[in-house]
Amino acid sequence: MLAMLSALANPHRLRIIAALAEGGRNYVSQLAREIGISRPLLHLHLQKLQNVGLVTSQLELSDGGKAFNYFEVSNFNFELTPTAIAEAVKTLTINLEK
């Protein structure tokens, strides 16, 4: 849960999730144009989202042989409640009592 919340704490990543949710799967160059950020920056954010399972990717070849990396938002749903937070705290490995 903490990794997902951390990934979603960035406005660029929220915009990526929104664009993929509204427009469906998309390849990196087109998505970068739609969101208005560079491809390298988009790749950085997509990697973070993919690492926590919020997006998936699939590499496909066009008829001309060009590779396109398509991304789509994963179906996710988590409820943020006091109980969910209490359960997540049990998994923490950092001792904050100093």
From TrEMBL:
It comes from the Bacteria. One of its GO terms (molecular function) is DNA-binding transcription factor activity. Residues 1-88 form the HTH arsR-type domain. Pfam families: HTH_5. This is ArsR family transcriptional regulator. It comes from Massilia cavernae.
